[in-house]
Amino acid sequence: MANQDNSFYVKQGVKMENINDLQNKIIADIQAASDLKALDEVRVSALGKKGLITEEMKTLGAMEADARIEKAKELNILKAAVEKALDERKALLEDAALNEKLKQETIDVTMPVRPETQGRIHPISKVLEEVIAIFGQMGFEVAEGPDIEDQFHNFNALNMPLNHPARQMQDTFYINHDKDNSFNIEDAYVVRTQTSGIQIRTMEVKKPPIRIIAPGRTYRSDMDATHTPMFHQVEGLVIDKTTTLAQLKSCLYDFVKAFFELDNIPVRYRPSYFPFTEPSAEMDIGCLKTKTELKIGAGNDWLEILGCGMVHPNVLRAGGIDPDVYQGFAFGMGLDRLAMLKYGIPDLRTFFEADLRWLKHYGFAALDFASLTGGLSNNGGLLR
Question: What is the DSSP code string of 284-340?
């Protein structure tokens, strides 16, 4: 529709003396508008600065009072009807325009993503999902805590006195927080050396029975092919009145079978020492070692995988739990080491080098979620 003024409707034989005919004509033009531009042209011709209705409004001032009131009433009714019709038609045309735009911009989500744009899940993230899935099935909850820890939760409450070797500065990152920059090793904060502090924090706020795992980053001053200054651990804690060493062994055996996805895997426990457990042990799993391969399962060799034991009574007391009533077991393992063993990654340092070629080789597809029902490693999620 071309630009219109008040002469458009006059040329059509519609005059202001017949308000009903004019209203019908304008509304018909509104309904006939095929797009928003045409609709706006109708609006301008009727309600614009020089529109027919606007021009008629300007004549009211010269009319007699009675006639002015009557005509103003008719014009207001006409104007309201036209505005309503414009709004309704505009809404319909806008919906139609939006639907047409969406139709033109439709993306076929069934098409495969280009290989060069695919992201990969880091092996540590994948192993963390697997561990949580296994222990979650056993009824464990996931607990979290701060990376910057005070020495009570990181050392003292775990039965490690000030002169314990693990507290020496060559192993631990200490943080000075004194305003005068004077350093006092007894008061300094530490970047946590293990996630065991989360166990103490859980005991402080939760009454037994307790069944948690505590995954997270840990930090120690060490760097070689099997050690890095920052690494990942997961620790477990179970406290109840009847917790036994046999239950600990059963729990860990079920875990290694599920994690390595083997129906049968040889295991053994060697006596060891940890200040926070008594008795303490290290768990070994069977393997077959050759010059070029390490195979988990039946074999002539053993591989240490984790440390465990019954929670020391002093640790229970530090967490506010009576060791004469409750007892528990705890265990801890490195997520990075688990990833290296399961997926054949030879050097721990490569985990943190941000090499996209390495991640493309060892990484997992984004939708390969770990579950005991669907499979932990999803049979081919790892690129080879």
Answer: EEEEEE-SS-EEESSSSEEEEEEEEEEEPHHHHHHTT--TTT-EEEEEEEEHHHHHH
Taking the C-alpha atoms of residue 218 and residue 266, their distance in angstroms, rounded to an integer, is 29
Question: What integer pLDDT is reported at residue 50 of this predicted model?
Answer: 81
Measured between alpha carbons, how far is 272 from 246 in angstroms, rounded to an integer?
17
DSSP 270-285: EEEEETTEEEEEEEEE
Alpha carbons 205 and 211: distance in angstroms, whole number: 13
- CATH pick for 123-147+190-354 out of 3.40.640.10, 2.60.40.420, 3.30.930.10, 2.30.30.140: 3.30.930.10
Indicate if the pLDDT at residue 219 is higher than 50: yes
Instruction: Please list, in sequence order, all residues whose beta carbon lies within 8 angstroms of the beta carbon of residue 298, skipping any fewer than 6 positions away.
Output: 264, 265, 266, 286, 288
**The residue type at 24:** N
**pLDDT mean across residues, the chain:** 83
Tell the burial category of 217 from Cβ atoms under 10 Å away from its Cβ (0-12, 13-18, 19+).
middle
pLDDT for 3-52, tens place per residue?
Answer: 444 445 544 444 555 777 788 888 888 888 888 888 888 888 888 888 88
